[in-house]
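Hi Y.,

Following your request, here is the sequence exactly as I used it, all 149 residues.
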Amino acid sequence: MTQSIDRYFSKGNSLAHMQAHAARLLRLQGQLRRLLPDYLGEACQVANLKDECLVVHVTSAALTVKLRQAVPTLLMEFARMGVALKDIKVKVTMPEYRPAPQPPEARSVSIETQAQLQALAGQLPADSPLARSLQKLVARARTRAAGDS
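Below is the corresponding structure, written out as tokens. Let me know if you'd prefer a different format.
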């Protein structure tokens, strides 16, 4: 069931609580990255903090093992920084799959269109930004056509 977003804004306490929780997670993320070697810190993402248990997602099973081995040391280091944690749970997550972008479609401007664009640019004032853009477009179209030949 959909609810109006105004309903959430009217309840300032819950929104403020969520904002404070998100800010705390961001601080913990920064602290975790400073405590870990670069290769490991970049692969870790703080996911949640609940009941003094920090949940960290890692992008690789091998790095998950390394991070689990470091948990006792991390708990001590977090305690030194004033963050009381009972445990750190490490979970493997798969990176979001995104298919490779399609290569841009090769476009061409016909010779007739180039001539019409050049004529239009000639009718505009010389200092016109549109005239300069049209001239650049025609020049690029001619360069591409010459490169395809």
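The beta strands are 44-50, 53-58, 87-92.

Thanks again,
Q.
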